Amino acid sequence: MSRVLLVDDSPHAQRMGERILAEEGYEVVTVSNAEAALIRLQDVDPDVIVADTVMPGRTGYDISQYIKMSPQHRHVGVILTAGVLEQVDEAQAQRVEADSLLRKPFEASALLAAVRPLAERAQEARSQIREGGPGDPHAAGQVEKAAAVVPFVAVVDAEQVHAAVTVALDASMARMVEEITRHVLVALESQATARPAGAASDAPADEDLIGAEAAPAEAEADTEATEQSPWPEPVRRVTTLRRRPGSILGLDDFPADEENPEAQE
Question: Superfamily for 3-155?
């Protein structure tokens, strides 16, 4: 049974194309963008790819270029599609070696007429590779060796890498969560075993004990130093003065016996 990979961002186009092809016995796989098509290319292994030329991101032109550059997939036929009001760059379609151009909405007769010869050609190419080709029993081995040895540089960009990484992370996310959880639990158990519970809160810190013992000692030392100080407290002496109008400075000293009777006592 021939397989067809249908690439279109329109759900209506996907349903129409899948119904027409499935009724004729084709196995159909539908995807919504070029990135998903390139990721599914290996496991689907289609005979024909029907790809839209107007899609967000990469388009059917990019898919056709990818397919025709790959020695492993050169037997795959590529049909580019576009809406009635959408322009098709026929020069670019030739550059990427597209096999056919088709307008949407799909007409059953036109779609089958474009797919059938490409699917038969792909099946014949597969048979020749498996059987070694007519008159060349070593052709199959040579083709497989060339596909394995010749380096293939695909049209790769950030969007394609992002899609592949997203698929890989989705597949491994559950395992990553379990592994991280296990490591966290092991670390918590190790800390609980190394440090008994309540040890830090029950015993006072050494610094607190030293500070509590040192405070009374410092207070006693200050008291003793005050009591045994060799320096007497300063005494302030005041001389009684009287203002006299006839004095040059306005001040005059008087003997203790005349003006300061208290001094005599």
Answer: Response regulator (3.40.50.2300)
